[in-house]
């Protein structure tokens, strides 16, 4: 194998582990690194058909939660089509060098936005969903990346782990399927693109199950922080682990004297997360009760 083929195998293997754990992240990791030695016009048509199968797998594994979330995210799915058509036209017509540059320009603010951990629940999900879906469709069809903005939006709405993965699988299966059809009609599939699939597919078949096993060992509160980019919460958790041990409160209905209660999370507009409880609320209450301030 050539050097770039070995690099592609290693990159996609690591990305597949992340995708198996979080339900997204394959393209977010693969594309920026693979674009160092490939172009969007070659890489995208190889990734999109694979992502159709990958997203179908994620949705199937989390199908039990789908009835409770599909109506909420349906406006996003409906809004995908116009964005996918526009993005496909850009991929087929824009110079590959400029397209690669545009991809890196778009990725940086997305990564920073997710890392900032911005959280403000959206009230009018339906009206925002159509516009957001169009933007996601455009972004995905040009870069095959949509995980970061979708993760921020769905985390903001306070979905549990299972609901989050089901909603994400539903949206991403729709966007990858729409894009696969659009690429076909635009004539973007080539022998060079199809030649990359044998180097990508084995990494996915091995990496995704590994990620699915690893995620079972991660605490739910850490998962919420990772998928929403709340780096400060993760750092705070690390600092707390070095402090003297204290009881871990996992639910808002745990008995805490009223004088020690401080609904911090509600003041910030963060939704109560049914999977892990209102952790910021309880962390502050527990800290005051034990005399820790900070």
List keywords for this structure.
2 domains, 294 residues
Commentary on this structure:
Helix 1 runs parallel beside helix 10 and helix 3 packs antiparallel against helix 8. The protein has two domains: 213 residues, no CATH class; 47 residues, no CATH class. It is 72% helix and 0% strand. The chain is an all-alpha fold and 294 residues long. The C terminus is likely disordered. The longest helix is centred in the first third of the chain and has 28 residues. The protein is built from 14 helices and no strands.
Largest sheet: none
Count of alpha/pi helices: 14
Shape: globular
Helix content: over 70%
Radius of gyration: 21 Å
Question: What's the N-to-C terminus distance?
Answer: 54 Å
The count of DSSP E runs of length 2 or more, i.e. the number of strands, is 0
Name the average pLDDT. Answer: 75
What's the helix-strand series? HHHHHHHHHHHHHH
Tell me the structural class. mainly alpha
Unreliable stretches, pLDDT < 50, 5 or more residues? 225-294
Strand percentage: under 5%
What is the number of independent domains?
Answer: 2
Q: Can I get a quick summary?
A:
The protein is an all-alpha fold. It has 14 helices and no strands. It folds into two domains: 213 residues, no CATH class; 47 residues, no CATH class.
């Amino acid at each position: 194998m050539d050097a770039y083929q070995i690099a592609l195998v290693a990159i996609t293997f690591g990305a597949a582990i992340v995708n198996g754990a979080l339900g997204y992240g394959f393209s977010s990791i693969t594309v920026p690194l693979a674009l160092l030695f490939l172009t969007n016009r070659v890489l995208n048509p190889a990734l999109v058909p694979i992502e159709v199968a990958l997203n179908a797998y994620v949705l199937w594994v989390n199908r039990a939660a789908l009835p409770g979330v599909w109506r909420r995210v349906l406006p996003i799915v409906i809004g995908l089509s116009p964005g996918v058509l526009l993005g496909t036209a850009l991929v087929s017509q824009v110079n590959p060098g400029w397209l690669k540059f545009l991809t890196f320009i778009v990725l940086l603010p997305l990564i920073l936005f997710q890392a900032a951990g911005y959280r403000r629940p959206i009230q009018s999900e339906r009206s925002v969903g159509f516009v957001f879906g169009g933007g996601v469709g455009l972004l995905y069809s040009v870069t095959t990346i949509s995980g970061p903005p979708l993760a921020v939006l769905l985390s903001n709405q306070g979905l549990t782990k299972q609901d989050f993965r089901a909603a994400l699988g539903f949206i991403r299966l729709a966007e990858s399927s729409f894009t696969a059809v659009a690429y076909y009609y635009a004539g973007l599939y080539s022998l060079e693109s199809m030649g990359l699939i044998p180097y990508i597919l084995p990494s996915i078949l091995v990496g995704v199950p590994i990620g699915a096993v690893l995620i079972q060992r991660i605490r739910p509160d850490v998962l919420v922080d990772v998928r929403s980019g709340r780096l400060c919460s993760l750092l705070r958790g690390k600092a707390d682990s070095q402090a003297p041990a204290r009881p871990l409160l996992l639910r808002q209905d745990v008995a805490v004297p009223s004088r020690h209660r401080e609904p911090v999370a509600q003041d910030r507009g963060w939704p109560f997360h049914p999977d892990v409880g209102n952790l910021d609320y309880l962390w502050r209450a527990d800290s005051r009760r034990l005399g820790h301030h900070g």
